[in-house]
Amino acid sequence: MKKFIVSIFIIFPLLFLGSASSYAGLVVVVHPANSMQAISKEDLKRIYLSKKKEFSDGSLISPLDHPKDSETKKTFYKKVVGKSLSQVSSYWSRLIFTGKGIPPRVMRGDEEIKVWVAGHPEGIGYINKKSIDDSVKVILTIK
What is the model's pTM? Predict the structure, then answer.
């Protein structure tokens, strides 16, 4: 029993260390040819709440989202939109019911978002910082 208790005190803190170091932050990505160099959190919030529907050049925006059970999505909405996932779900339920908005398209994860954004100039999405490559352009880092 003593060994079990001692091992819990040693292993349990190590689990938290491992999960903290694996989180590198989030980045917002667009098509590499997009003229946008940066975006504010406020504009990003407006895009993901369907209040801003065009880039500054007038082209339509097509925001992409992660699955509803994703930690990435939970972090994004908390840090950018300032809402929990249940609050976001309620928000979209109201907009859909009144016909005033369509939620962002849901993708399976970082790789699918990168592929879609790389093939669609109107695309914008958020991914884990560790997933960045040359197929997309980073316009905001969320810490």
Answer: 0.83
Residue 24's nearest CA partner among 134, 139, 132, 108 is 132
The residues, ordered by sequence, that sit 6+ positions from 6 with a Cβ below 8 Å of its Cβ are none
| Structural domains in the chain (count) | 1
The answer to whether the beta carbons of residues 96 and 102 sit under 8 Å apart is: yes
Other C-beta atoms lying within 10 Å of the C-beta of residue 20: 8
Among all chains, which residue has been given the structure tokens 């946008």? 36
Q: How many Cβ atoms are within 10 Å of 118's Cβ, its own excluded?
A: 19
Q: What is the CATH number of the domain that holds 84?
A: 3.40.190.10
Separation CA 26–CA 132 (nearest Å): 10
Residue 37 inside a domain? The answer is yes
Q: What are the residue ranges in the chain where pLDDT is below 70? A: 1-23
